[in-house]
């Protein structure tokens, strides 16, 4: 009898072996499920239950720490980067992006094969074979699509690959797993998958991705990666706050008497709210009241210093499933006149009650969705305005340097600045040539003179800022520096004086030579020598030009007083 029981037990064990040996998708794809896992998720469109069997013959399963992982990719380890555009408003689409990062010097070519990059050296040096994986050659050999045996062109659940255009160049199998369901896709080194969140569970969820690469007539696991995403019933919003002259908007400290720009950013990458009317309700916490607008940008000015808490509520209506209808009130009878009176104002004709429309199969309702934002801002005094009221060129005594000095008289309104900075750039104010900053001490009135040097002539753009701990006020101006070449008045005068001196010396030398040659003075009119006449005419013209006054003072006149 004991032997019979053992034999029956052996038969039962043998009968259970195939069931135990067949792995399920959740056993392969997920490491997060506990023994008390309960499936309470709605069906995602296009996804399958992870209770399906996994084809371990084509897609082997390696546990963590298996030594085969070290050889899963030639030349190193492939990193898998998984991102999403989470958070997603329920009803919108959420997209997951997967990208493979190959080892150094490896890339995917246009045919889907993995090749070594040209002129790239890794730790092992250049490879004589240009291919890491020449999957194109495998296709030509009949291992991928041209052969008669197509049994290996299937996903782990046995479904065949979709034979769309270019599918033979897709050599990676991606398995997405979330909410007890999986989605399988054939792709290249990067791909994306979008899911509609209408039936998804609210809150943070886990997405896991397992990647296989093909190897002849089977597949090799490459890597696993996971990320957390969020599905919410509140509109994901953020607010950017900016203000002119504010030194640092990120610290939420702003200036009094200057408008603050509030710009609402709605996170809606799938454009789910494009056709919805959106309303913004602002309360700035300063007693100015409630502001309601349909514009995502609003300016507000705080007129008193202090700390304020402001609130923003964003409201919109989106299509969604209709809630179950509420019970209709009982029909009044003649024996209950009080009931008839209380319901007489709420009864509506059949078909006019919007709740009745919700019972129509396949028809959506408009559901109000809200988004909330709260922040605290601190309002302080600051520099509100800065102006350049005068520009003056500074005269530099000789020898003059190549640079020119300019004085700028600057005034400001608001608090007293503690520093001044200037940025000198080209006339377009795009290419900076120099930045200079100095501490300032201007007392109780904001009036100061800033001196700056400019290298060479031309037109410059100068940005001038006055700053303190909380503010930074800016003004700009164009500065024109004239040239200092032949057109410079001081250099022109010097040049004329030098020229006159040289001519005077030349005339004196010639006059001395003539005097020595001709001992006696001969009047010009009695001279018959053409050469002498020409020389005397030249001297007379020269003297008349450079030595004004009576000729009686000419030292060449021997018989006049003061002669040489």
UniProtKB/TrEMBL annotation:
Function: Could be a melanogenic enzyme.
PANTHER family: MELANOCYTE PROTEIN PMEL 17-RELATED, TRANSMEMBRANE GLYCOPROTEIN NMB
Alphabetized SUPFAM superfamilies for the sequence: PKD domain
Protein name per the record: Transmembrane glycoprotein NMB
Membrane topology, from the record: Single-pass type I membrane protein
Upper classification of the organism: Eukaryota, Metazoa, Chordata, Craniata, Vertebrata
BP terms from Gene Ontology: cell adhesion
Keyword Membrane attached: yes
Cell compartments where the protein resides: Early endosome membrane; Melanosome membrane
Keywords, comma-separated and alphabetical: Glycoprotein, Membrane, Signal, Transmembrane, Transmembrane helix
GO MF annotation: an example: integrin binding
Species this chain originates from: Rousettus aegyptiacus
Domain called PKD: residue spans: 280-318
CDD domains: PKD
Superkingdom in the source lineage: Eukaryota
Gene Ontology cellular-component annotations: early endosome membrane; melanosome membrane; plasma membrane
């Amino acid at each position: 009898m004991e032997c019979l029981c053992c034999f029956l037990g052996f038969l039962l064990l043998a009968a259970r072996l195939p069931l135990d040996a067949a792995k399920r998708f959740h056993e392969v794809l997920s490491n997060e499920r506990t023994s008390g896992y309960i499936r309470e998720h709605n069906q995602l469109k296009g996804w399958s239950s992870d209770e399906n069997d996994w084809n371990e013959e084509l897609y082997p399963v390696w546990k963590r720490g298996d030594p085969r992982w070290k050889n899963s990719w030639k030349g190193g380890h492939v990193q898998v980067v998984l991102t999403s555009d989470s958070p997603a408003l329920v009803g919108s689409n959420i997209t997951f992006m997967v990208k493979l990062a190959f080892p150094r010097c490896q890339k995917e070519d246009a045919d889907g094969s993995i090749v070594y990059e040209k002129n790239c050296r890794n730790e092992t040096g250049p490879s004589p074979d240009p291919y890491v994986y020449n999957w194109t050659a495998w296709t030509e050999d009949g291992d991928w699509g041209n052969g008669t045996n197509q049994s290996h062109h299937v996903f782990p659940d046995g479904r065949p690959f979709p034979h769309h255009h270019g599918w033979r160049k897709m050599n990676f199998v991606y398995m997405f797993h979330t909410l007890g369901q999986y989605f399988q896709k054939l792709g290249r080194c990067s791909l994306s998958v979008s899911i509609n969140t209408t039936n998804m569970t609210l809150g943070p969820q886990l997405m896991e991705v397992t990647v296989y690469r093909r190897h002849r007539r089977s597949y090799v696991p490459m890597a696993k990666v996971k990320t957390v995403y969020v599905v919410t019933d509140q509109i994901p919003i953020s607010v950017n706050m900016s203000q002119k002259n504010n030194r640092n908007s990120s610290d939420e400290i702003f200036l009094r008497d200057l408008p603050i720009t509030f710009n609402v950013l709605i996170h809606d990458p799938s454009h789910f709210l494009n056709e919805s009317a959106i309303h913004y309700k602002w309360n700035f916490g300063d007693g100015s009241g409630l502001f309601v607008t349909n514009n995502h940008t609003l300016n507000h000015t705080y007129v008193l210093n202090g700390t304020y808490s402001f609130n923003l509520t964003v409201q919109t209506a989106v299509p969604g499933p209709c809630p179950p209808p509420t019970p209709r009130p009982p029909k009044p009878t003649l024996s209950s006149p009080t009931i008839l009176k209380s319901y007489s104002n709420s009864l509506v004709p059949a078909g006019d009650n919007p709740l009745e429309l919700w019972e129509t199969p396949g028809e959506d309702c408009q559901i109000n969705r809200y988004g909330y934002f709260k922040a605290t801002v601190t309002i302080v005094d600051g520099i509100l305005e800065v102006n350049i009221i005068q520009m003056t060129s500074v005269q530099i005594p000789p020898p003059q340097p190549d640079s020119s000095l300019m004085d700028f008289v600057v005034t400001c309104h608001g608090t007293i600045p503690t520093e001044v900075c200037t940025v000198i750039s080209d006339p377009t104010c795009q290419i900076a040539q120099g930045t200079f900053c100095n501490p300032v001490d201007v007392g109780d009135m904001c009036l100061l003179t800033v001196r700056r040097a400019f290298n060479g002539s031309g037109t410059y753009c100068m940005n001038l800022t006055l700053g303190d701990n909380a503010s930074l006020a800016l003004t700009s101006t164009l500065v024109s520096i004239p040239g200092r070449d032949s057109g410079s008045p001081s250099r022109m005068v010097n040049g004329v004086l030098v020229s006159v001196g040289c001519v005077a010396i030349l005339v004196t030398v010639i006059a001395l030579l003539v005097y020595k040659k001709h001992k006696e003075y001969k009047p010009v009119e009695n001279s018959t020598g053409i050469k002498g006449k020409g020389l005397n005419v030249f001297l007379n013209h020269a003297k008349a030009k450079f030595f004004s006054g009576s000729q009686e003072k000419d030292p060449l006149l021997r018989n006049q007083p003061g002669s040489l």
